[in-house]
Design goal:
294 residues; alpha+beta; Alpha-Beta Plaits; 7-stranded mixed β-sheet; 4-stranded antiparallel β-sheet; 11 strands; binds adenosine-5'-diphosphate; binds the ligand N[C@@H](CCOP(=O)(O)O)C(=O)O; Homoserine_kinase; GHMP_kinase_N_dom
Length: 294
């Protein structure tokens, strides 16, 4: 048996829709695999009641198929589905690392990105790699048609998840199909600022770089309480706030000293709207970790 811990991720980071992503120190999915004649899946943990065990409907089944690696796969979900923290991607990335090792396929982490993205295609209709790339590689990733660029980063963040759900597929439907040139220019500037900030672990530059005028305004309208939560996080010291992935999670970038106050302020703001939430105080962290002996 092989075990892999695959981290949650926060994709888009405002200005990098379908391109940027970061791995988070917590939460994570744990995937255990054993060789078997046919793939079977069992699931425990966060939101497991809502996740199909049919290999044709689960992201890990798509990965097993893509690697021609049938297995008994046990998923312990730490990442709640449809919360904006790359839940389906964490399982896909974990399964890709585990099955690649189990069957000695010899693929590099970079080569596993399109394999794990097959799982994303299954659930969201498109093989967007911006969650699986950081879950596989860790740090900050830039995923384009030319491949993935990875930068190690360790900035403090707060990811606040309300007890509501937004399906990635639904949230993709509200993304504008066209944009004004001035908004594109603005977004390019923020994306470049964010990228430099990641290379320097600079909360101010990354915080500024989260801004975007194209996708986030449409997406945030799907999240009850978003404006109040964003304002509360900024008042408590966050250097920038945006929608995590497709939402409803909200991501704040900050200095470590402000993390606790920001987490409290975000949860209080959701609470004032009658919405329970949970906040992870964590940092940008490592990619999927393989435990070869159990
Ligand atoms: N292994 C898996 N882990 C989590 N969700 C999965 C998995 N396999 C399939 N799904 C389905 O994917 C959907 C969640 O995906 P999505 O809306 O993209 O949210 P998330 O960002 O949490 O992945 C749910 O319908 C869920 O049932
Ligand atoms: N680029 C995707 C990212 C979805 O992230 P998730 O964590 O909500 O699955 C999108 O914005 O649609």
């Amino acid at each position: 048996m092989l075990t892999v811990r695959a981290p949650a991720t926060s994709a888009n980071l405002g200005s990098g829709f379908d391109v940027f992503g970061v791995a988070l120190g917590a939460p994570a999915d744990v995937i255990r695999v054993e060789r078997a004649p046919e793939t079977s899946i069992s699931i425990t943990g966060a939101g497991s009641n809502y996740i199909p065990t049919d290999p044709e409907k689960n992201t890990v089944g798509a990965v097993a198929e893509a690697l021609d690696a049938p297995a008994t796969i046990r998923i312990d979900k730490g990442v709640r589905p449809s919360s904006g923290l790359g839940s389906s991607a964490a399982s896909a990335a974990g399964a890709a690392v585990a099955l690649n090792a189990l069957y000695d396929r010899g693929l590099s982490r970079e080569e596993l990105v399109p394999v794990a993205a097959e799982g994303e295609a299954l659930v969201s209709g498109e093989a967007h790699p911006d969650n699986v790339a950081p879950s596989l590689l860790g740090g900050f990733t830039i995923a384009t048609d030319d491949g993935v660029t990875q930068v190690d980063a360790s900035l403090p963040v707060v990811a606040c998840l309300p007890e509501t759900s937004v399906s990635t597929r639904d949230a993709r439907d509200v993304v504008p199909k066209t944009a004004a040139l001035e908004d594109v220019v603005d977004t390019v500037g923020h994306a470049a600022t964010l990228t430099v900030g990641m290379t320097r672990d600079d909360p101010e530059l990354v915080g500024k770089g989260l801004n975007d005028a194209i996708v986030t305004p449409e997406r945030s309208a799907l999240i009850d309480g978003y404006d109040a939560v964003r304002e509360a996080a900024l008042e408590a010291g966050a250097t920038g706030v945006t929608v995590s992935g497709a939402g409803p999670g909200v991501l704040a970038v900050c200095y470590a000293a402000d993390q606790r106050a920001i987490a409290g302020a975000m949860m209080d703001a959701f609470d004032a709207e009658g919405i329970e939430s949970r906040a992870y105080q964590t940092t940008i962290g490592e990619g999927a970790r393989l435990y070869p002996n159990g």
